[in-house]
Structure formats: structure tokens, C-alpha cells
Specification:
FAD/NAD(P)-binding domain, 13 helices, seven-stranded mixed β-sheet, five-stranded parallel β-sheet, alpha+beta, 25% strand, Alpha-Beta Plaits
Length: 528
């Protein structure tokens, strides 16, 4: 296969004409081209008066590939070997492996185990996606929280109620396999080539269900409303687990447990710590959701091309360093989306962001975060970061009126430490509701001063970021796990063999794709 990179195309280009583009790039007649596929497509917006697409394509020719590449004289053309996922060797396990948690990591770990004949047992504390959606909507509408079925817990994990963003900072060939499997389960094919692919929460539900059915068809078993409450071991090796379901407590005999519990399974972390599993503190970030009019972001990013049908809603990713040495950055930006209630514990308020596939809502939102570390937690206890999060979430619950309403403040008021008493041109999207106040009352002072300095500096990178009517909704505390469950080079806990700490909850990934890749790696470790 021939890959051609760095092809510049106009926003109005007809992508059904890629065959002609490939022929010109390779300096051959189009009749010699058998197939052309987009490999990558990104927006080049560095020059606001000349925004264009930058593309890479894969080409299959009816000719000798080496000669074609040699004779075309195009330095951007090269021969590549297509990627095919395969595990060269795997052992037959003595007992069925158990996967704890059915978010991206759990789904992909289970899928690989099932594909290689191991018939995994998946336990998920939350509900199946259809029942979970009912509980989430009830929380959004009435403020009735189910601690076991919410934005954090349930089939698909926390990523199901997000933008479905598939961007990642990791470099791993397994990413291609993740994207291919998602497409096979119903994701749009464009995720295979867009530089910033996303699925949207409205599409994720069906994809997650299809993935579950595929795992079951391959011999796997998925048990919902089934929670890990204990691990049993002998000579520091796992030999069974205790789970609790609607039918009571029972034991599952297994010597391989892939732990994919997510960053909000605080009770599970406590149980593991009490059992002696080695856990350490980890840096993470806390802050707020900042909400702007989407058209403001479009104009800032695309200038006169804002609103062009080929571009869609604009996004951003920003970071600055502060005089204090801390960093402030945006995370999980949701174009044309909403701020969502993401609490999983009674008496806590937590926010997150979500977008549908269309990204057509009037507001853009993003997490605006300050990095925090063990020195901020006030204790050297391995779980101190959890309590740091909890303190902020409880304060926000009280500040919002103890009904899961979120504290909000206009940016212009926040910057001068003034209580907001009326809205401007931006309508908050958070449900079940909000309370205008001074959000400073639910954060440590260093978070507030960092956010203020960060907003001013970020405005220099994205004009309008400090827009006075923009809304700050507090708090965002679950950007990543506050702990790391230590594992060795075999992906196992360093003091409990057979326990594979995986993905976000264990402190080893962040985001749908990196979580899925870590799930695959843990499954491979079990098989090998």
C-alpha cells in the first residue's frame, strides 16, 4: 500500500474525487489506481484567511508499488505495511478470567479475551445502558441520584456521557484496532481518519450495547448490578473474588482479575487498600467547567470561515504556566455541548461535559483545570487525594443549595471576587439546576488564584476566552484518578499476582482510546 501525506485541499473539495488527487500525486493515470482511502484529515487553521484541510491517503495501485513511488518523485509518498492485530501466542487459562468494570478498558479487555477463547466474566456495578439512561435522565430532571447508576457508573463507563472524544496523546499501534472495533459496532467510519474524531453521547449508547452483544456471542458473560466487594488470595496470588448483586453475595473462583473500575470507584479503592494492595498518591487536576457561546469560539478559531459547513463547531485545547509554577489548562472540550451533573456520591456535586454527535447546542464548554499534587492533600495517606476531591464536592453541594444544583458565576464577577446575581448573554446548560453565587467558597484559595491568572493568560491564546458573560460551573474534580495502583512490567499488582490494575482508575490512562488500549494490553498480559 502507498501512503501519501501532506496533501492540502480546500474546504469545498469534493472527497469523491480523491482518485484524481492520488493520480496527480503519483504522476500516473487514474486507471492504474485500484482503491483510495482517506487515512488522516485535519483542519489547518494557522492562517485565518486561508483555512484548509491537510490530508493523508492510502492508495492501492494495479502496478508495482516500488516503481510507482520511485518514479513519481513525490517525497510525501511511501510504501507502508497495513496493520493487522494479532497475538502470536496465548495460553489456556486454568479458570475464567474476570474483568471488573465495563467502561472502555473493560470492554476491550473482555473483547480480546473473548476473541481468544477465554470466556471472560465481566462484572459491572452499574446497570445496562438502557436502564442507566433512565437513571441519568431522572437525575438531570429531578435531582434524584442513584449512587450505583449515574454518569460515572454503568455500562460504557463515564465516557458514555461525554463527547465520545477519541483523541489521545499516546502512540500505540493498538489504537487502529480500537477504532476499527468501534466502527464494526456502529461508530461512523470517519473516526478512522479524522484527526480529532468523536462519536457523541447519542451514538455511544448503541455502540456500547453492540460491543456487549459481541462479547457475549464469543462466549463472554456480562453481569450488571454486580459489585466487587472483596478479593481473596493465597501466598499473595488472587484465587477468588467476592461480589454483591441483587441476589446477595457470592464467590467467583478465578486467578486472573483485570481491574477496570474507573476513577470514581472510591469504595473499591478503600477495599483494595485495606487488603494490602499497594496504592500511592498521584497528581491530578481540579477546577470548573467554563461555558462560552459556540459562535464566539467559532469566530476565534476560524475567522471569516466560521460557520462553514465543512468545519462544524470549533474546539480548542489550551495550556499556560503560572508564576506560581502551577499549570492551568483546558480538558475534555465539548463543542456545541452541555455541562452535565456527574455526581456518584450522595451529597456531592460534580460536573463534566457532554456533546451529541451533531455538536449543535448553542454553548461550548470545557474543563478549566489546575494541577494539584500530594503536597496539596494535607496528608501522606495513599487515599488523601480522594478526600481532597470530596471536600470540594461537599462544599459545592452545600453552596448550591443541597439539591444537586451547581454553583455558577460569571467570569467577569469571578475575576473581581463578586457574587453573581444575574445572568448575561450565556444561559447555563447544567441540569438539574444552578445557583448564582461566588464559587470561590468551595475551593482552596490557591485554586481560585490560579484560575483567575489562567483565564487572563488563556485569553491571549484564544481571543474571547475571558468573555465576561461566560459561565463558570463548579466543580470539576474527576479529571483523572487521584491514586495509582502500582503494577510491574507484567501489568500485575506488584504484591498481588493475578490482579491487573488497568486504565484510568488505576492511574494508567486518561480518555476513551488510551483506556481501551490499556485494556487490550492487560488482556494480552493475561493471555501471555
Amino acid at each position: 500500500m502507498i501512503r501519501i501525506t501532506n496533501i492540502c485541499l480546500s474546504l469545498d473539495f469534493d472527497f469523491s474525487s480523491l482518485k484524481e488527487v492520488a493520480a496527480r500525486q503519483l504522476n500516473i493515470n487514474s486507471s492504474k489506481i485500484k482503491e483510495v482511502h482517506l487515512y488522516k484529515k485535519s483542519v489547518d487553521a494557522r492562517k485565518k484567511d486561508n483555512i484548509k484541510f491537510n490530508c493523508s491517503i492510502n492508495v492501492i495501485v494495479n502496478d508495482n508499488e516500488k516503481n510507482v513511488v520511485k518514479l513519481c518523485g513525490n517525497k510525501n509518498a511511501s510504501i507502508i505495511k497495513p496493520y493487522h492485530y494479532n497475538i502470536s501466542s496465548c495460553k489456556k487459562l486454568k479458570s475464567r478470567p474476570v474483568v471488573v468494570g465495563f467502561g472502555p478498558a473493560g470492554m476491550f479487555a473482555s473483547l480480546i479475551l473473548a476473541k481468544y477463547g477465554q470466556k471472560p466474566i465481566v462484572i459491572e456495578r452499574g446497570k445496562s445502558i438502557d436502564k442507566r439512561i433512565i437513571d441519568v435522565n431522572k437525575f438531570f430532571k429531578y435531582g434524584i441520584l442513584n449512587p450505583e447508576s449515574n454518569v460515572q457508573f454503568g455500562e460504557g463507563g463515564a465516557g458514555t456521557f461525554s463527547d465520545g472524544k477519541l483523541t489521545t496523546g499516546i502512540k500505540d499501534p493498538r489504537i487502529e484496532q480500537v477504532l476499527k472495533e468501534l466502527v464494526l459496532c456502529g461508530a461512523p467510519e470517519e473516526i478512522l481518519y479524522l484527526s480529532k474524531p468523536h462519536i457523541g453521547t447519542d451514538h455511544l449508547a448503541k455502540i456500547v450495547e453492540n460491543m456487549r452483544n459481541k462479547i457475549i456471542s464469543l462466549g463472554g458473560e456480562v453481569l450488571f448490578e454486580t459489585k466487587l466487594i472483596d478479593i481473596l488470595s493465597e501466598n499473595n496470588s488472587i484465587n477468588s473474588i467476592i461480589v454483591e448483586s441483587l441476589h446477595g453475595k457470592h464467590e467467583i473462583v478465578t486467578d486472573n482479575v483485570i481491574l477496570c473500575v474507573g476513577h470514581s470507584a472510591r469504595d473499591t479503592f478503600k477495599m483494595l487498600f485495606n487488603r494490602g494492595v499497594q496504592i500511592s498518591q498521584k497528581s491530578f487536576s481540579v477546577g470548573v467547567r467554563i461555558e462560552h457561546p459556540q459562535n464566539l469560539i467559532d469566530k476565534a478559531q476560524y475567522g471569516k470561515f466560521a460557520g462553514h459547513i465543512a468545519l462544524g463547531a470549533a474546539d480548542y485545547k489550551l495550556a499556560v504556566h503560572l508564576n506560581s509554577g502551577r499549570g492551568v489548562y483546558t480538558f475534555c472540550m465539548c463543542p456545541g455541548g452541555t455541562v452535565v451533573a456527574a455526581a456518584s456520591e450522595l451529597g456531592h456535586v460534580v460536573t463534566n461535559g457532554m456533546s451529541k454527535f451533531s455538536r449543535a447546542e448553542p454553548n461550548a464548554n470545557s474543563a478549566l483545570l489546575v494541577n494539584v499534587g500530594p503536597g496539596d492533600f494535607g496528608s501522606d495517606h495513599p487515599l488523601a487525594g480522594l478526600e481532597f476531591q470530596r471536600k470540594i464536592e461537599k462544599a459545592a453541594f452545600n453552596l448550591g443549595g443541597q439539591n444537586y444544583y451547581a454553583p455558577i458565576q460569571l467570569v467577569k464577577d469571578f475575576l473581581v471576587n463578586k457574587v453573581s446575581n444575574k445572568l448575561g448573554s450565556v444561559t447555563p446548560s447544567y441540569k438539574p439546576g444552578y445557583k448564582l453565587c461566588n464559587i470561590s467558597e468551595c475551593f482552596p484559595q490557591f485554586i481560585i488564584s490560579s484560575l483567575k491568572e489562567g483565564i487572563i493568560k488563556l485569553d491571549k491564546k484564544l481571543h474571547g476566552f475571558s468573555f465576561g458573560d461566560a459561565i463558570l460551573t463548579a466543580p470539576e474534580t474527576r479529571s483523572s484518578s487521584p491514586i495509582r495502583i502500582t503494577r510491574d512490567e507484567t501489568m500485575q499488582s506488584i504484591n498481588f499476582k493475578g490482579l491487573y490494575p488497568c486504565s484510568e482508575g488505576a492511574g494508567y490512562s486518561g480518555g476513551i482510546v488510551s483506556a481501551a488500549v490499556d485494556g487490550i494490553r492487560c488482556a494480552e498480559a493475561v493471555l501471555n
